Amino acid sequence: MPSRRIMTADEVRRAVIRISHEIVEKQAGTAGLVLVGIQRRGVPLAHRLAEAIAEHEGATLPVGALDITFYRDDLSKLGHSPLVKGTDVPFQIGGATVVLVDDVLYTGRTIRAAMDALREFGRPQAVRLAVLVDRGHRELPIRADHVGKNVPTSREEIVRVRIREIDDEDAVDIDQVAATAGVGA
Predict the structure, then answer these.
(1) Residues 138-145: contacts with CB within 8 Å, 24+ apart?
(2) Which of 132, 98, 90, 95 lies closest to 114, judged by CA?
(3) What gap in Å lies between CA 92 and CA 32, rounded to an integer?
(4) Per-residue pLDDT averaged across 170-174, rounded?
(5) Listed residue (76, 112, 90) closest to 34, CA to CA
(6) What is the pTM of this model?
(7) Which helix (H) or strand (E) element contains residue 33?
(8) CA dist., res. 102 & res. 127, Å (int)
């Protein structure tokens, strides 16, 4: 089944710029604001948001990277050697407003794990969530504060975000999950 493109490179760029304005507006400025990208594609998105904020506000925000691997509730399903991507939060989050940045919001479990991981670094004043795509199907009571695009999906679909820094292009596609013969029979 072919992919269906739901965001082009230009639409991704515009979404990042719009989200950057929303973040500053909700904070009423940039004071006390930090961005933390969730590994893997949330990290370059967080850097892009910081660049956009620097461009329109003239303020440089701290940007960190958070690896949630060992905070996941499905860690036992990842095998004996899960791929650890690295955490780098070289600033204090105590008293700051932390904007977690991720590519896709789905069940909410990744965000719950990220909030657990953040506790290792202190107690922020507030935690907000910015995502490029919200596809629905929440299993936990989590919602994004800033969304690039809301996309109704079925559980049989996969949202594939491609980011230039990792995948050599910016795009978001929806693919159908390949049906496996005999499953559930």
Answers:
(1) 138/106, 138/107, 138/108, 139/107, 139/108, 139/109, 140/107, 140/108, 140/109, 140/111, 140/112, 141/108, 142/105, 142/108, 142/111, 142/112, 144/105, 145/22, 145/26, 145/99
(2) 98
(3) 10
(4) 98
(5) 90
(6) 0.91
(7) strand 33-38
(8) 13
Q: How many helices (H) and strands (E) does the chain have?
A: 4, 8
Beta-sheet strand order (sheet of 146-150): 63-66, 33-38, 97-105, 126-134, 146-150
Domains of the chain by start residue, with CATH: 4-77+86-176 (3.40.50.2020)
In this structure, the chain runs to a length of 185
Per-residue pLDDT of 51-66, as tens digits, reads: 999 999 999 999 999 9
Q: Which residues pair with 101 in a beta bridge?
A: 37, 130
44/50 Cα distance (integer angstroms): 10
- pLDDT mean over 20-40: 97
Cα distance between residue 63 and residue 107, in whole Å: 25
